[in-house]
Amino acid sequence: MKAALNTTYGTIVISLDTERAPETAANFAQYVRDGFYNGTIFHRVISNFMIQGGGFTEDMQQKHTRETIRNESANGLSNETGTVAMARTSDPHSATAQFFINVVDNHFLDKSRSQDGWGYCVFGKIEEGMEVVNRIKAVSTGNRGFHQDVPTETVLIESAELIEE
Fold it and tell me: Rounded CA gap, 26 and 80, in Å?
């Protein structure tokens, strides 16, 4: 299964791993089908870490999500450059819609190396558009309200669509 994120910086195609992260991939795909990601932004960009999106509108209003999902981080996938993982709070089973794209190898986020013993569930990999990810990771950032590392120029997900089911 593949999903395309059409952003103001170009298109990012994600291959979803429905075998090793079935619940997480299905959750992401359902948010895509529902149009949830349309009009959301990449709201957190750290150039030597990751870019995060999927939860806030342009005016930094957090969108209402469905219920949380179980953390599938024990699936053998690693937080390597170009992989996509679910964002969460300190509760290991708190992921909903927000995701991040690793822009460097972040093995410390893997279940086997994480401080909390859970880590962050990788559920996909960038298949096309890594140059778009690299452009996004290079944007200028600042503080906006209580949020840090927010792009000073909006990086909008104009639309998201499943392109192969």
Answer: 21
